[in-house]
Structures are given as structure tokens and as C-alpha cells.
Write a structure and sequence with these properties.
The structure is a single chain. The protein is mostly helical and 55 residues long. The chain is built from three helices and no strands. The model has no long low-confidence stretch (mean pLDDT 80). This is ATPase component of general energizing module of ECF transporters.
Length: 55
């Protein structure tokens, strides 16, 4: 999720905060970034995929 923001020259902390903000806007908790993709539902993975390409 932080690949896109880091590609736009954000430092690691800014990229993580940006990703957390987007996830929280979609109703996810902050701990979802440490969760394994295998523990997520298909709908959750779909939302994560959309957010990871959202700029």
C-alpha cells in the first residue's frame, strides 16, 4: 500500500500515515496493514487493491 506514495518521493513515515488515513476512510482499522492477506475476505482484499492504486 505504500509503494505508490513512496514512488512519489514521500518518506516512509508520510507514506504509512497516508495509507492509514485512506484505510480508515474506508472503514478499516489501523492494524489491517499488519494483517496477512490470507486472513482477509475477498471484499476486504478488493478494497485494499483499490486503495493501493488510489492517488
Amino acid at each position: 500500500m505504500i509503494f505508490g506514495p513512496k514512488n512519489f518521493k514521500m518518506n516512509l513515515d508520510e507514506a504509512k500515515n497516508y495509507a492509514h488515513r485512506l484505510l480508515m476512510d474506508l472503514g478499516f482499522s489501523r492494524d489491517v496493514m499488519s494483517q496477512s492477506p490470507f486472513q482477509m475476505s475477498g471484499g476486504q482484499m478488493r478494497k485494499i487493491a483499490i486503495v493501493s492504486n488510489w492517488q
